[in-house]
Every structure is written in structure tokens, then in C-alpha cells.
Design a protein that fits this description.
There is one protein chain. α5 links the parallel β3 and β4. This protein folds into 2 domains: 219 residues, Aldehyde Dehydrogenase, Chain A, domain 1; 185 residues, Aldehyde Dehydrogenase, Chain A, domain 2 (3-Layer(aba) Sandwich), CATH 3.40.309. The chain contains 16 helices and 15 strands. The strands form 4 sheets. Strands 5-4-3-6-7 form a 5-stranded parallel sheet, with helices on both faces. It has a 4-stranded parallel sheet with strand order 9-12-11-10. Strands 1-2-15 form a 3-stranded antiparallel sheet, with no helix packed on it. α1 crosses α7 and α13 runs parallel beside α14. By secondary structure, it is of the alpha/beta class.
Amino acid sequence: MDNKETIQALVARSRKAQAILEGYTQQQLDAMVRAMAKVIYDNAEPLAKMAVEETCMGVYEHKIAKNKGKSRIIWNALKGQKTVGVLRELKEEGLVEIAKPMGVVCAVLPCTNPIVTPMCNAMFAVKSANTIIVAPHPRALRCTARIKELFDAEFEKLGCPKDVFLTLEDSSVEMTQMLMSACDIVVATGGGAMVKSAYSSGKPSFGVGPGNVQGIYDTDIDIAVAVPKAVGSRTFDNGIICSGDQTIIAPKGTYRQIIAEFVKKGAYYTEDPVEIEAWRKAIFPGGVMNKYLVGQGVDKLAAAANVTVPEGTKLIIVKAEKAGAADLLSKEKMCPFMSAYAYDTWEEAVEIAKQNLLCEGAGHSVSIQSNNREHLVYAGLHLPVSRVLVNQSCATMNGGAFANSLSPTTTLGCGSWGNNSISENLSYKHFYNTQRIAFEKPSWRQPTDEEIWSE
């Protein structure tokens, strides 16, 4: 078969399975979704090992935590949620809302999260009686194939069609684009070019923008409590999480104390201009992130920059010269590396963060350590981000946590700032159509012209 015939055959199989799911009850769908989460949870260790070995990035122990954590929290958020039939009846408004599946979902996957991203997208799809075809990254084909094996075995136990979860074996750019155009909805998690391609597919699409989470520290914080959260956020899975803190924007009065705490927790810090330039060239050769350093540890970063760092160093921190486009270190660094800035006023701190976000990462998130509500609201009003995470570890909590009310997910929308269609965490609610049956409102009346035009 040629490429077009291959895609047509794959989608036809998926549509046949989706027609069966469309007749399932909520309980049947939920049993499938639970099984998908539980099998990832139960196989967290071997899947983490496979992900590290195949992608050559990240940290084994952190991937275990990610596999267990995401499967646990996403299923917990999904169970009990209504996605089939009548969602709600609003008698006073004369409305009945009914959920309808979208059909076949195409999910384009990154190599940075080769286990939990396909799991998450598939759980959201099946929750609403859709089927899914995933286009894996070429560096994660084995991981995706193993997930399919695990899911298929669970589906067989439940008497469900195995074609609910299908994979594109040839995930070339051409084949992926053809798949996106052939399915009913597209979820693209990856580079900007792929997200743009998804939006050009002619199908409803959800994409994500790049991360460049700005970390701002207020004057009223407990430094010993705040710093470990940022260290954990930046070093988790060797920095490949889009929600990991990228910067330290600290008040001049406590800047040295904050940096000292980072060093105490395993960071290496420098203000040497010559050394900083070496780091800059190593991480951003030609002005773009060095793909060979994505998800790599400090030892490989130091070797690339030809800089000697103390044994056991977890994180590199350098004093940035300027904010925004004037310094490459203001951009997203997908490795355990941070840039630091000192500010005089809170307004200046927010402006530094804003300039960095406008350079890269607008629409994503900011991580703030503060107990000053006025400052937090000011930051929210002035920063072009979809999420302001307060006093938490951003990498592991920005995508939803038991401690906050953000929707658990692996895909974080960045709104119009990031050229995305949503400015919230992608959830199961984005995977069904809502039909509305509209009756006359029982107690309606038309207001008078005087009432309408009154001020």
C-alpha cells in the first residue's frame, strides 16, 4: 500500500472500533480508562527504564515517579465524571446538555514524555468514547509499541476492541501530516513546527507552546522552604519538563542568601563573564537549544562547556547579563540549568519575567514564591501566562496536583500568546462535543425597552 492507503486503512480500523465504543455505557468506558492507568502504574519501572534507554534522556527514578504519579492523579480526576449521554439538565434555563464523542483522535507525541503523554491522551479520548491513533516520535517507537501491547492486553480482558489504541509505525513528517488530516481531532505535543502543522491540518486541534517558566521570589518568603521546591522543579527528569523553573528572579536584598541556599542544595553558581559565555555557547550554539543536551545531566553540560564543576553538582546557575532577547540565557533551557536576576522592586521583577516570556514561552506559566496577595495579583495582571503557580514545585504540580485545582494533564495550553487554541490544561472535557436541547424557559419574559437601555 502507498502512504495514503496505509493511513486510510489505519483510520478505518479506528473508526470501526469507535463505532463500538459509541454504544458503551459510562461504566464500560470507565473500566477501560481505569485499566489503562493501572497498567502504566503497575509497569512504571520497566517503562521508565525503556524510556531512558530509548530516548537517551531524563532520569530513571524520576520517570518512575512520573509514570506512577500521572496515572494515579489522572484516573482519580476522571473517575465519576460524566461524559456519556445527558450531562446535566438546567430546568430554569430550559437546557439539556448531551455529550457526543468526536470520533478518531490523532495524537502527535514528543520523545520527552514517551509514556505518560500517550497514556494521558488515550485516557481522555476513551473516557468520551473516542478511539485514538498516536504518531510517536522516532526516538520513542519501542515505548509506544510496548504501551500498545499493555493496553491491548487490558482491552482483551474487558472484551473491548483492540483497535481502540493504534500507532503509526512510520511517523515521518509526511505520514503524520496525512494522519492529522484524516482524523477528527488532533492533539499535538511537541515542537512548534509540529503544532503549527496540526493547526494547518484542517481539523480541530489542540497544541501547546514552548515553556520558559519564570521563577520569581518575594521578600517575605522562607528561603529554606522555597529553594528546594525550585531545585526539584528544575532538576526533575534532567529538566525536560516544560513546567520546570527556568530562572531565579530574586530581590537584591536577599539575592545572596537565596543563591547560597541553592548552592547548599547542590547547585553550582558563577558570575564569571568568560565562563558564562562558555555556558551560553554550549547550550545555545547558533542561538538555538543544543539538542544533544536536552534532558542530559550536569556532567554532559559541563563537558560541552569545558567547565569544571564540583562532583555531585545537580544544577548549574549563572548570573544573566540582561533580560529578554538581549541574552540567550533568557530562553528555555531543557536541562538542569538556570539563569539568575536581581531586582529592586516587585514591578521590576515582573518586568524581567515578562521580557523573558516575550522572548520565549509567552502563554505558559510563571512560578512565584510569595505570601503577598497584592504582589501575586499584580503579577497575574501583568504577565502573559495561562498559569501562575504559587509556592509549589512547578515541574511536578503545574500539570495538576492533589494540592491544587489545575486539571491533571500532560498537555498545557498557552492561549493566544503561545498560538494555542486553549489557555488551560487539556482535559477530558476537550474530547467530546456538547449538544444542547433548548426549550422555552418556563418563566421567561422580554424586558421592556426602558429596562434594556437603562444604565
